């Protein structure tokens, strides 16, 4: 489903992603782990289209999407979530979901004037899908609550619901466990598994919670220093000496990379490129 070949992303002289190659098959939940500064989030930004690679290619469903903008990838079914949820604070949970589907008839001024019946029918269908999604996520009781008032776990469930409103084929989940209490985390894990096993969703999941990775993910990929260190089942990856060194060794190279990735000049270059992509 997804093929990443020789991907490189340089910010000045710093390579946040350095020759990364991996494959994601349809129906997998691939876990992406690695220490801070390994390049995981930068890889997500490249796959989602928020950043353009310095070198390498990205193929999705057999098509080269390396140069496609984020919205074009979204329309093809490649959707991402964020470590910090990006909800519309002042809209209700239901309204947040109803905002997601693209190309709704109500967005067209002339349709509102000359095809009002079609617009109403489309809005009702979207509303019903939003309500069905909230029911699946067990969030019906907060359907009319402002999204900004939801708990961290409820916001993560709502982020997952937004991917469901697009009928996504591949979902990039960025640290879904962050800021979520254990009860809601178990619920989130359950919903991801149902979407994967019963509804055919494919996932790539960045996560530091190894319990969640062990429960959900096969295969598991460990990144370090911008490269894929190893790919395999959870227990093989966890016991690999290179993985242990990457997490625990605190080698000078690892420390230098972590410092470089948070260097103000590198951050400025990253922000400049993200700003260009938004224009």
UniProtKB/TrEMBL annotation:
This is ABC transporter. The keyword Nucleus does not apply. PROSITE patterns: ABC_TRANSPORTER_1, ABC_TRANSPORTER_2. GO terms for molecular function: ATP binding; ATP hydrolysis activity. Residues 2-250 form the ABC transporter domain. It comes from the Bacteria. Signal peptide: none annotated. Residues 253-279 are annotated as: Disordered. SMART domains: AAA. It comes from Thauera aminoaromatica S2. The keyword Signal does not apply.
């Amino acid at each position: 489903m997804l093929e990443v070949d020789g991907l490189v992303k340089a910010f000045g002289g710093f390579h946040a992603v350095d020759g990364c190659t991996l494959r994601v098959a349809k129906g997998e939940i691939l876990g992406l782990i690695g220490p801070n500064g390994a390049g995981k989030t930068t890889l997500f930004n490249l796959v989602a289209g928020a950043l353009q690679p310095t070198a390498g290619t990205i193929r999705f469903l057999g098509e080269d999407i390396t140069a496609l903008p984020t919205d074009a990838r979204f329309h093809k079914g490649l959707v991402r979530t964020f470590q910090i949820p990006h909800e519309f604070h002042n809209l209700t949970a239901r309204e947040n979901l109803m905002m997601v589907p693209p190309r709704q008839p109500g967005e067209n001024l002339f349709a509102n004037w000359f095809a009002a019946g079609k617009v109403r029918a489309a809005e009702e269908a979207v509303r019903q899908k939003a309500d069905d999604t909230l029911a699946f996520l067990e969030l019906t009781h907060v359907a009319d609550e402002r999204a900004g008032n939801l708990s961290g776990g409820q916001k993560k469930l709502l982020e997952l619901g937004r991917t469901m409103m697009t009928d996504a084929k591949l979902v990039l989940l960025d640290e879904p466990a962050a800021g979520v209490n254990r009860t809601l985390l178990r619920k989130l894990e359950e919903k991801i598994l149902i979407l994967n096993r019963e509804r055919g969703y494919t996932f790539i999941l960045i996560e530091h919670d190894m319990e969640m990775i062990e429960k959900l993910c096969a295969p598991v990929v460990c990144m370090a220093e911008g490269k894929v260190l190893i790919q395999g089942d959870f227990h093989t990856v966890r016991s690999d000496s290179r993985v242990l060194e990457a997490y625990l060794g605190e080698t000078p190279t690892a420390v230098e990379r972590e410092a470089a990735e948070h260097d103000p000049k590198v951050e400025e270059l990253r922000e400049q490129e993200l700003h260009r992509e938004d224009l």
